[in-house]
């Protein structure tokens, strides 16, 4: 019979009180009392090197159930012991053959009860406080159990095949698609994304982001030569005739400007004449130059085949070719690019771009009817419908999820299993023993009861066979 009280830890000099609000387990060993005296008797509990946690109300209820089952098992052992004594007395008094059968059954029941009591008690503590080898298994082997548990989880739950098989059976793509296809769910996801975006943009410091954006744009622009790309683009524009509209616009604006500002043009021409020429000659020359300039611009505007247009086409074609193949032209373009990027105004413009973009994104994220949120919602609904109805989309999502899960499992398997082993290693052995006993101790006490019953039946059967064979 288990003579160790449920409250006893089995360690001399220590007593574990029922843990709960207001109760704290303290070490009362002489060394701990000496440490408390050294603190001046403040009454503060000693700091233990082991982690102690409290029992919950559920654990307390389970522990009370274990105590009741212990009393039941012990009462059954006491019952068969009394039966054995009475049967032996009756047999000695000549009560008949039946007393031998009863005594044999009761004797075997006691043996079975005591054997199972020893086995059950040896899991949690030393029986009767005697340090018998291979007893108190849980407190002594706690760390090894944690390692074994971690290895078991890693091999049987965190393997690639198990993860893929389980995720494939779940059908994440189909379920996620059906969930996203519901408008209220798409609205919820959109709201959460908008909140996350606003939070991220609020946390970021403008100065840091501006520096990063400016440095990234400048580095990218400096590392990539723009001449060949500009040459190809210009060549394509000239080939397609895309520049002709710009020429038409420039000629039309130039003609209008000349007509509206004829006086300024005449004054500019006359002002550039030598001082020794007569004024009427300067005026006649200015009028002549103005009329020829206006005629040239008008003809160039009205005639698509004007020689000046052809000359401009040839110039642009040659320039596009030089941008792609001429070393000097490309070098001059690169120098010009560097000078432009180094200007403070350009750097300020690049840095200010982040402020404008952030304000625009935050405003769009806050407005439920903004184009950004409407497009995100529509995209989520469309994605949900595709995932819910198209096997190819479902398979793609399933493969992505499986790949991500397998990557996490295979990469961080040791970290995941070490969480189990480290957690178990940090548990206090005595508290762990009490926790485990509170959760499985009630079922273990049935082993004692079953051992008593089965032992009695086995003893009765053996006695009966022996008497039969002896007869």
Automatic annotation (TrEMBL):
Q: Where is the composition biased (Low complexity)?
A: 26-39
Q: Which InterPro entries match?
A: DUF445
A Pfam family assignment:
DUF445
Spell out where the chain crosses the membrane.
Answer: 71-91
Which key words tag this protein in UniProt?
A: Membrane, Transmembrane, Transmembrane helix
Q: Where is this region: Disordered?
A: 1-58
- For this entry, the protein name equals DUF445 domain-containing protein
- Taxonomic path: Bacteria, Bacillati, Actinomycetota, Actinomycetes, Kitasatosporales
